[in-house]
Design a protein that fits this description.
seven-stranded mixed sheet; about 30% helix; two-stranded antiparallel sheet; 7 helices
Length: about 260
Amino acid sequence: MADCVNRRRHGQSELLWWLTEGGAEAVEATGLLPKRPYRMSRQAAAGPLQEHTLATVETGAAFVTHAARLGHECGPLDWTPEIAHYYRAEDRPGEELSLVPDAVLHYVHTEADRRTLLTFFIEVDRAQMTVGRLAQKLHAYAAYHAYAPQPATRAARAATAKPQLAWRSRYPLYPRVLLVLTGATSARLQSRINDLRSLAAADPRLPTAGIRAGITTLDELRDRGPFAPIVTPVLGPATPTDIWLAPATAPAATAA
């Protein structure tokens, strides 16, 4: 059902556990999770993406831990890694593009009789890719937000007044984009935040895209939780806020 590999860190060895093929099939047989074609292997578990995978798991675990502390709802089945979202972009005609967040996370914020359903695209950065590539990912989120598939035939296109945006078939509202930085000193991570904000402000698509995006660090998320002022908006004032990014005013049991 499960197997393990070694992880060497700070001169210490620890075991990292992962589901085998049989374990994954047993979980999927419960019907609680959709089937996924991807399977972890010993080679992948011990490979070069090991630390990135762990940072993604720690991000999800931080949400689960603080949800329990705050009386909110977010459990280990409420985030799914690497879900592909296909789209096309005007600046890359003819290409079938794929946006793959490190995880899609669902969270229910509860307060009195008010329940707010939150969804996040999670991007984890261990300070190994360039800030320029991070900015390109933000650009991709903006492009996916605007993507509306065109009907296949001319007659169908003529009969369709306005094609539906692709993301609306999956989400009631476009998920917030949360970039979680780790793998470097606090000073270096702050520099990356500042550089990313500068590149985002210069992107002609982002300021008018209508997406809500913010940046935090894994340490802050783990230590203080998502509803402390730990998130720096990608656009606008650099004052850290909480994970709402732009609080929605809506009645009970709404998505925001």
